[in-house]
Amino acid sequence: MIQILVLIGIIISAFFVLRFKDLLASVISLAIMSLLLSIEFYILQAPDVAIAEAAIGAGLSTAIYVIAIKKSKRWEA
């Protein structure tokens, strides 16, 4: 049951990544999706992949995206 909820959460957060107009909101949604994906890997008994996904996907990539957004000029289309 928890696995189905995590998968639904991944799909919903991926939808919001594409739907948000604000880049920072999209990056936060992408981080949530990556964190849920690492939980899914842990449920599937792949803790090494889950740790790598949490560290790189949710942590490092999010930090790089936020820094890139802060250094760029933000404008609405």
Helix content: over 70%
Shape: flat
Q: What is the number of E strands?
A: 0
Average pLDDT taken over every residue: 93
Main beta sheet: strand number and arrangement? none
Structural class determined from secondary elements: mainly alpha
What assembly state would you assign to the polypeptide chains in this entry? single chain
Strand content bin: under 5%
Instruction: Domain count, please report it.
Output: 1
Query: Count of helical segments?
Result: 3
Structure description:
The protein is mainly alpha-helical and 77 residues long. It has one domain. 83% of the residues lie in helices and 0% in strands. It has 3 helices and no strands. Helix 1 packs antiparallel against helix 2 and helix 2 runs antiparallel to helix 3 (47-71). The model has no long low-confidence stretch (mean pLDDT 93).
Question: Tags for this entry?
Answer:
mainly alpha; 77 residues
